[in-house]
Amino acid sequence: xxxxxxxxxxxxxxxxxxxxxxxxxxxxxxxxxxxxxxxxxxxxxxxxxxxxxxxxxxxxxxxxxxxxxxxxxxxxxxxxxxxxxxxxxxxxxxxxxxxxxxxxxxxxxxxxxxxxxxxxxxxxxxxxxxxxxxxxxxxxxxxxxxxxxxxxxxxxxxxxxxxxxxxxxxxxxxxxxxxxxxxxxxxxxxxxxxxxxxxxxxxxxxxxxxxxxxxxxxxxxxxxxxxxxxxxxxxxxxxxxxxxxxxxxxxxxxxxxxxxxxxxxxxxxxxxxxxxxxxxxxxxxxxxxxxxxxxxxxxxxxxx
Length: 304
Hints:
five-stranded antiparallel β-sheet; TATA-Binding Protein; alpha+beta; 15 helices; Endonuclease Iii, domain 2
């Protein structure tokens, strides 16, 4: 274990680091005294955004190379202004942008993203984070971290999880999802699903490929397509987004999921996935304020 050896400051425009890392896209980031600590690939990373938001301070212990791996992960170079201009100029989207401006999509490793979202069904975000943490600690490769920070682990590879019993996976507090995780890990490890190849397919074909996997429905598939592969029109619809679409765009009605999907595919434009994340985070924050006034900060489930 060594001290942080490599540091860099990045000037950013309209980047809200906290909103990005807290918005339910990824589950390994932990806030520590104003900084965010997590693992990207096989590197431990510490991020901190200066007051005013114009600079993100980055630190790591391993050799970072040209930092491209982290810039791509954080999507530092997205033209957020152009993204936001593509949204429909209606009341709900205007409110979501006002409350979440600076929120970015991440570009994650496809296997880690897929495996993490397999744990998300009917789970609250803190529970998903706990399951991911336990999987990493028990089956992930130990990597270099900061002095005094405890052991740090990469996300376990598909081959490692394929060799683990379902019972051992259940010990990571993931319940029935262990069966799906193991089955999907086996298919990936055997090469029956090429995650690299999925990223080269048109959106519909990529989605069709993913939903053949154990436990993967349209919502999980769209999460992976959006948060790992960067398909801009992928639009995950979970309980939060379904509620937002019904309450904000179909007041007094209860359109079925098929109608909501057709609406989301046509209404939100070429950056529909970004619009979805703004709506998702906005409605969760608003619900959290209501819940907190009632005396509890418990988040509701992030399930299908």
